[in-house]
Amino acid sequence: MRDSKEFGVVGLGRMGGNLALQALEKGMRVVGVTREGASSDLKQAGLSEIRSLAEFTKQLAAPRPVFIYIPAGPAVDTLLDDLAASLQQGDIVIDGGNSYWGDSIRRHRRLKARGIRLVDLGTSGGVEGARHGACFMAGGEPDAIARIEPILKALAVEDGYVHAGGPGAGHFTKLVHNGIEFGMLQAIGEGMDLLEHYPDRLRIADVLRCWRHGSVIRSWLIDLMDAAYRAEGGLGKIPSYVEDTGEVNWLVNDAIQMEVPVPVIAQAVMQLFASRDGQQHWARAIAMMRHGFGGHQYGPAAPVRQERREGRIGDFVRQEPVSS
């Protein structure tokens, strides 16, 4: 039997590719496929690149863990159906993207009827986390989790892994995480706006550096704000248009259905909309931090906007007929 830490990956972009690189550097065996072809860095690091999903069964020992890192939406359902037809009973598919948690529960039921296990894996830490140590929130049944837990712990930062609960729990906790992130970004952005509007000139870069050391609000986001502010020479050159893929809209909808008040998170979503129709310092600040942790581009991005529009605004779990 091969090493229990070997695994497959579908989608070798910023997140999937960097996780694969981290794993290869740690001596794991990674088998991967991506539409555009693997990067030279991955090939040089030892990636076993395949051309079709069916090759996973030849390259990996059962039960096979296969991670998918593609954008949320209908494409995930299509890929899962293709994987279910290509893998064998007992194999495990791990959805590491930002799928809606209700969809993950529905997909778990559908794949289970075909003998395939699904783990929904919230992945945080951005591109740097994928490359050097991520934060994972897993949802799934205990036997599937037990098979992939050594892999997740090896690729996570210390204490940066949790089996959050049953199917759907990983993507739900990641969605809540993203909502909190939006609220924190908005608060920092508004603080930057206030600093810019002070009646006299402030040494804002030095203020940010000070806040990074010992203040109550010291954080990775403040670190990113400081680094971007210095690199860009302030906020003035950054477009105030803040793009997003729309996942936190699902959380606001969930909160309404659960009758849980989330005014800060909801307002943060509204402020993203507001950024697209004005010249706001706070929006430039948020754009800079998002670029820092996720590599999100500045200004409007047609592919991201399309992803947001294609992604279903989630509601609670739909019942769906089980098909074999």
Explain what you see.
With 324 residues, the chain is of the alpha/beta class. Helix content is 51%, strand content 13%. It has 14 helices and eight strands. It has an eight-stranded mixed sheet, sandwiched between helices. Helix 4 links the parallel strand 4 (65-68) and strand 5 (92-95). The longest helix has 28 residues, at 169-196. The chain is globular.
Q: Which structural traits does this protein have?
A:
single chain, 324 residues, alpha/beta, eight-stranded mixed sheet, 14 helices, globular
Structural class: alpha/beta
State the helicity in percent bands.
40-55%
E-strand count: 8
Strand order of the largest sheet: 3-2-1-4-5-6-7-8
Q: How can the largest sheet be summarized?
A: 8 strands, mixed
- N to C succession of SSEs: EHEHEHEHEHEHEHEHHHHHHH
Beta-strand content: 5-15%
Low-confidence stretches: none
* Inertia-based shape: globular
N-to-C CA distance: 30 Å
Number of helices: 14
Alpha-carbon Rg, integer: 21 Å
Provide mean pLDDT, rounded.
92
